[in-house]
Write a structure and sequence with these properties.
With 251 residues, the protein is an all-alpha fold. The protein is built from 9 helices and no strands.
C-alpha cells in the first residue's frame, strides 16, 4: 500500500475511533464519575502525556539514527566498490578484467537483485555469486605473481566490501523489539483514552481535542514503523549510490 494512502487511513481511522470513544465515555457511568475532576485532570494527563511524548520522541530518534546509518553504510559500500574497481587496474591480466567485470556486475546485481530481495528481508543468491567471483580472483593473485602491496590493498578492500554488505543485510532484517512496539501502542491508547475520558463541557470541543491528539499520535507511530524498516516499504534507502558508482566505473 502507498505510504501516503496508509498515512491518511491511519490518521482518519484514529480520528474516528477517538471520536466514537468520546461519545461512548461521555454517556457512560465512567464519564459521569469523572465529572468535577477538572482541578486534577489537567495535571494528570499532562504527566501521562509528557512521559509518552518523551518515549515516542526517543523512539523516533532511535529509528531515524538507524535509518541514517543505513544510508551512510550504503554510500560507504558503493565508494568501496569504486575503490576496488580502481585497484583492479594494477592486477595482471586476466585477473584485472575478471575483477573489474565482477565489480560492475556487483553494482548491477545490487540494483536489480539485492534491493528487491531485501524488501522481502532476504539476501540475493545472484549477488552472493558475484561476491564469490571476486574472492576467487583474490585467491588466484599469488599464482599470477601479483605485487604484495597491491595484493594486500585488494584483499583489504574486498574484505571491507564484504563486511559492509553483511552489515547492510543485517540492517534490513533488524527491527525494534516487539516489547517497544507494545509500549508505544499501549502508551498511545492510554493517552487517547484519557483525553476521551476526562470531562469537557462542549461535546464537539471534546471530540476535536481528542481527535487531534489521536491523529498526531497515530502519525508519529507510523513514522516510527516506516523508519524502522529502512529497506522496505515506500520510504526506504535507495540504491542510488550504486547507480552513481556504475556511472563512474563505466564512464
Amino acid at each position: 500500500m502507498n505510504i501516503v494512502v496508509l498515512a491518511v487511513l491511519v490518521v482518519v481511522l484514529s480520528i474516528l475511533i477517538s471520536s466514537a470513544l468520546v461519545g461512548l465515555l461521555r454517556g457512560s457511568r465512567i464519564g459521569t464519575l469523572m465529572q468535577g475532576t477538572g482541578d486534577v485532570e489537567g495535571i494528570y494527563i499532562t504527566v501521562i502525556g509528557a512521559l509518552y511524548a518523551i518515549f515516542i520522541a526517543f523512539m523516533i530518534f532511535v529509528v531515524w539514527t538507524r535509518f541514517d546509518a543505513a544510508e551512510n553504510s550504503v554510500d560507504q559500500e558503493a565508494d568501496t566498490l569504486v575503490n576496488l574497481y580502481r585497484l583492479a587496474e594494477e592486477l595482471p591480466q586476466p585477473l584485472q578484467s575478471e575483477m573489474r567485470q565482477a565489480v560492475v556486475d556487483y553494482a548491477h546485481s545490487m540494483i536489480r537483485d539485492e534491493w528487491p530481495a531485501m524488501a522481502e528481508e532476504r539476501s540475493s543468491a545472484k549477488s552472493q555469486a558475484v561476491v564469490e567471483r571476486m574472492w576467487d580472483v583474490v585467491h588466484r593473485m599469488d599464482e599470477a605473481g601479483t605485487d604484495d602491496v597491491i595484493r594486500d590493498h585488494v584483499l583489504t578492500t574486498i574484505s571491507e566490501l564484504t563486511e559492509l554488505r553483511r552489515y547492510r543485510l543485517l540492517q534490513s532484517r533488524t527491527n525494534l523489539p516487539g516489547i517497544l512496539y507494545a509500549a508505544l501502542f499501549f502508551g498511545g491508547a492510554l493517552t487517547i483514552a484519557l483525553a476521551a475520558l476526562f470531562s469537557v463541557e462542549q461535546f464537539w470541543s471534546h471530540v476535536l481535542k481528542a481527535a487531534v491528539l489521536a491523529a498526531l499520535i497515530s502519525f508519529m507511530l507510523l513514522v516510527v514503523w516506516v523508519l524502522d524498516h529502512p529497506f522496505q516499504g515506500d520510504v526506504y534507502v535507495q540504491p542510488t549510490a550504486f547507480e552513481r558508482s556504475l556511472e563512474i566505473m563505466t564512464d
